[in-house]
Structure formats: structure tokens, C-alpha cells
């Protein structure tokens, strides 16, 4: 169910049994395989030598992109679904089905900050200007300070936010259900 993830000349695939496999894009030759031992339904992300694998049973697993070895794993509770992660600098931002938003160290998985928001965070966050943007299934759209997780601003969207957020220049593009696309200015208040 997770989308194939291109990583250089390879593609990383995951299934609902928790198997993660890297294959060459040109020939399909297997380079490595790993098991995260939990179903993977949400899109993975690669960056800075890591492949981030969110699971439906509360884990976010970081694999070494070159070998598939586990770099770290965090567990947030078996009943929690982990959303699509975002890499910003040396940290990972990820939301959950319980409304928790976490900033983790990309190298170690250590928690840097945690913020609780209203509603399921399913969409991949977006970032810009030292802010991370979060959308929820409860129609909340928030900007959090990238360093602390403090709420910079919050507004009500026109519908549930299920689709990944996108920053384009000084605009935050948000698609909501049922059929709305809204552009928000990303300028911080008093700046």
C-alpha cells in the first residue's frame, strides 16, 4: 500500500507484512531486504542516508539507505498509526493518528519536541522559514516553530486535510475534502 520510493538508482518497496526491499531500478536486482515487523501502508521517505518507514502499529523505523540495517526505531504505542514523515535539516517531523506531532533527531531518533494537536495527522507536513505546517483530519491547519514545536498560528481549513502539504515560494498549498485547494501566505506574523 505504500508508494514505491526512488532512492538514487534504486527503488525501495514495503508491504503490509513489514518487509522492506531495495532493488535496482534498471534491473530489479535485490540489493538488500529488512523487516520492520509491522504493516507499512503510509509513504516512506528517504534523505541523508536514511529510509524512514512509518508503520500502522505505532513505529517509525530508520533504515540505513545503503544497506537496509536498522539505524533506530521509535515506538509510540501499538494502537497508533504513524503518518508520512518529513525531513527538515537534521530532524524528522512526523504526525500520528492520535494528534501527536514529533520532532526526532535524524541520526538517533531521539525526541527533540512533541506537540499535541486536534485530530488525526495523516498528511505529510511541509516546512519553510523555520516553521513546520501541519494539517489534520479535524480541519485544523497549524504552523509550529521548527525548533520548539510551539504553535505560531492556527486556523480552521475548509475541510479535512488528508493530502500532503506543499510549500511553493511564499505560499502553503493545502488540498482539503471535499474539493478545495487553498493557498495561504507563509509569512510569519510581525516579520
Question: What is this structure, in a nutshell?
Answer:
With 191 residues, this protein is mostly beta strands. The chain is built from no helices and 19 strands.
Largest beta-sheet characterization: 4 strands, antiparallel
Strands ordered across the widest β-sheet: 1-2-3-4
List the quaternary state of the chains.
single chain
* Stretches with pLDDT under 50, minimum 5 residues: none
Helix content: under 10%
Count of DSSP E strands? 19
Shape label: globular
H/I helix tally: 0
Terminus-to-terminus distance = 42 Å
Beta-strand content: over 45%
Whole-number mean pLDDT: 94
Order of helices and strands: EEEEEEEEEEEEEEEEEEE
The helix/strand class is mainly beta
Q: Which radius of gyration do the C-alpha atoms yield? A: 16 Å
Amino acid at each position: 500500500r505504500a508508494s514505491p520510493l526512488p532512492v538514487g538508482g534504486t527503488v525501495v518497496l514495503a508491504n503490509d507484512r513489514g518487509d522492506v526491499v531495495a532493488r535496482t531500478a534498471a534491473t530489479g536486482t535485490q540489493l538488500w531486504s529488512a523487516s520492520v515487523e509491522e504493516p507499512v501502508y503510509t509513504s516512506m521517505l528517504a534523505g541523508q542516508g536514511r529510509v524512514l518507514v512509518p508503520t500502522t502499529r505505532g513505529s517509525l523505523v530508520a533504515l540505513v539507505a545503503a544497506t537496509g540495517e536498522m539505524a533506530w526505531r521509535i515506538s509510540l504505542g501499538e494502537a497508533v498509526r504513524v503518518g508520512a514523515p518529513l525531513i527538515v535539516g537534521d530532524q524528522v517531523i512526523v504526525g500520528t493518528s492520535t494528534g501527536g506531532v514529533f520532532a526526532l533527531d535524524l541520526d538517533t531518533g531521539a525526541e527533540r519536541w512533541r506537540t499535541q494537536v486536534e485530530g488525526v495527522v495523516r498528511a505529510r507536513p511541509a516546512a519553510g522559514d523555520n516553521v513546520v505546517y501541519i494539517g489534520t483530519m479535524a480541519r485544523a491547519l497549524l504552523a509550529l516553530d521548527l525548533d520548539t514545536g510551539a504553535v505560531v498560528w492556527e486556523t480552521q481549513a475548509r475541510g479535512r486535510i488528508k493530502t500532503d502539504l506543499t510549500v511553493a515560494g511564499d505560499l502553503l498549498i493545502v488540498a482539503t475534502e471535499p474539493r478545495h485547494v487553498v493557498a495561504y501566505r507563509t509569512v510569519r506574523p510581525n516579520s
